[in-house]
């Protein structure tokens, strides 16, 4: 039995390096005992490589492994190595077999880690601490898994302008305004118990509490009681629950108002994006029932392209031919898009192409099916799928074709014709650009107007060349 230990059991690079060495040496998984930090006091020597070309490993597996390694299950290293061994020894399609024990276990771990990360983002409360050179904000949190290094960048983006420290029992994260660093675990005594802003926060929380939507069991599932001890607003909950019925009756007596319909922007959909590889997401999307568009549509039209594409091109929604083929951009607009991409010097095969809405919405006219724009609720129902595609691919840039796609990425205030054809840096550093949808060109009446608009479309698409070089 070959004993292998890891200095940081959740680090993908370290696990990948040792797993690769074992794989090249031809060490069967059943002959490897994986341990955590210091369990065996050091590694046994891994035999030298047997020779031959290193096997290719799907990027989807590495994405799954990166999340699974944050899980607290001590079996994670061994199961991941067994999956790696199987992938490189004749089971290339392993990740697509959802019923396989190892795959099902890994997906369950991914789901649990993602949920824990979501809880950390939702329930961390920073408290103000005065120091000699100003102010620092400190938070204490007790996650179920080792997720600090994966969630800390979220807080960097959210609280870039302030110095903060996030303390957990396993490790700590620190942002000084310029650089993010990590340290060993801390204790609850290292974090402050309150600050001057908490009364204001409790007032705000009380004011937004909606008694008409109160479901105590559901609230405890979404905000488990174990987190309450670190939440300043938790002390209000018993009173708010007690007074919910009288407040609801008072609300019923008031005249109803109709809220304005809005589609949640893409950034807000990231936290609710489904988990899994692109292959798993595509399978899940086939059974999506979040809105009624699936009923008349032939099938879900999911995105296609390289899983490691540097650019994701986002259209609006499938048309008649896309619905029949199950692939995006294969109809008249898709053919025009392919032609414009070729003239712009950009290979469609190098980008991942998808749509904001995944089902064809139409109005029957005899034997024809006329395209109909998806409404706000239908767009919102599809938003997590688009967010999940982008989250798995991690592209350098997004290119939006049409107003629906542009507003999904930039927000409802974005004006396509006024802001098209320019790279805009999104929060987090990713670039995005918008241009017209090729179907817009097909609808233009005059040849001269159409030729001018097509030339501008090609120029916009040409902006992708520098990113792909």
TrEMBL record:
Domain of life from the UniProt record: Bacteria
Ranges where the Uracil-DNA glycosylase-like domain occurs: 302-462
Record keywords: 4Fe-4S, DNA damage, DNA repair, Hydrolase, Iron, Iron-sulfur, Metal-binding
A single MF term (Gene Ontology): metal ion binding
Any Pfam family matching the protein: DUF4130
GO biological processes: DNA repair
InterPro entries attached to this UniProt entry: DNA_repair_put, DUF4130, UDG_Type-4/5, Ura-DNA_glyco_family4, Uracil-DNA_glycosylase-like, Uracil-DNA_glycosylase-like_sf
Family: Belongs to the uracil-DNA glycosylase (UDG) superfamily. Type 4 (UDGa) family.
Database matches in NCBIfam families: SAM_7_link_chp, UDG_fam4, UDG_fam_dom
Protein name listed in UniProt: Type-4 uracil-DNA glycosylase
Organism of this sequence: Luteibacter yeojuensis
């Amino acid at each position: 039995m070959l004993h292998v230990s890891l200095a940081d059991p959740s680090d993908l690079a370290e696990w990948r390096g040792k797993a690769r060495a074992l794989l090249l040496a031809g060490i069967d998984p059943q002959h490897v005992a994986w341990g955590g930090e210091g369990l065996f006091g050091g590694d046994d020597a891994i035999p030298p490589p047997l020779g031959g070309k290193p096997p290719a490993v799907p990027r989807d597996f590495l994405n799954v492994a990166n999340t699974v390694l944050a899980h607290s299950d001590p079996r994670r290293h061994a199961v991941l190595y067994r999956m790696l061994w199987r992938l490189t020894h004749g089971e290339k399609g392993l990740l697509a077999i959802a019923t396989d024990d190892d795959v099902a276990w890994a997906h369950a771990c991914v789901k649990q880690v993602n949920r824990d990360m979501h809880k950390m983002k939702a329930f961390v409360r920073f408290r103000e601490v005065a120091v000699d050179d100003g102010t620092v904000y400190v938070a204490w949190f007790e996650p179920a898994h080792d997720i600090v290094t994966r969630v800390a960048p979220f807080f960097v983006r959210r609280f870039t302008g302030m110095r903060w420290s996030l303390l957990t029992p396993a490790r700590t994260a620190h942002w000084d305004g310029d650089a993010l660093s990590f340290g060993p675990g801390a204790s609850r005594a290292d974090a402050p118990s309150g600050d001057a802003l908490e009364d204001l926060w409790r007032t705000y929380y009380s004011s937004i509490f909606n008694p008409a939507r109160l479901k105590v069991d559901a609230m405890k599932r979404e905000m488990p009681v174990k987190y309450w001890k670190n939440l300043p607003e938790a002390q209000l909950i018993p009173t708010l629950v007690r007074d919910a019925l009288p407040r609801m009756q008072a609300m019923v007596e008031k005249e109803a108002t109709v809220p304005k319909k809005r589609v949640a922007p893409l950034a807000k959909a990231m936290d609710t994006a489904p988990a899994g590889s692109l292959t798993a997401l595509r399978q899940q999307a086939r059974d999506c029932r979040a809105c009624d568009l699936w009923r008349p549509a032939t099938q879900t039209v999911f995105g296609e392209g390289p899983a490691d594409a540097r650019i994701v091109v986002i259209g609006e929604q499938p048309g008649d031919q896309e619905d029949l083929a199950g692939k995006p951009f294969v109809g008249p607009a898709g053919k025009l898009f392919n032609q414009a991409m070729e003239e712009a010097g950009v290979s469609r095969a190098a980008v991942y192409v998808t749509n904001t809405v995944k089902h064809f919405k139409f109005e029957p006219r005899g034997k024809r099916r006329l395209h109909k724009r998806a409404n706000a609720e239908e767009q919102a129902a599809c938003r997590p799928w688009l967010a999940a595609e982008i989250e798995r691919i991690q592209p350098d840039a997004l290119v939006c074709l049409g107003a629906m796609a542009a507003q999904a990425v930039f927000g409802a205030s974005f004006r396509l014709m006024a802001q098209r054809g320019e790279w805009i840096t999104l929060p987090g550093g990713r670039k995005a650009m918008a241009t017209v949808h090729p179907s817009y060109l097909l609808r233009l009446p005059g040849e001269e107007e159409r030729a001018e608009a097509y030339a501008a479309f090609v120029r916009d698409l040409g902006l992708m060349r520098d990113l792909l070089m």
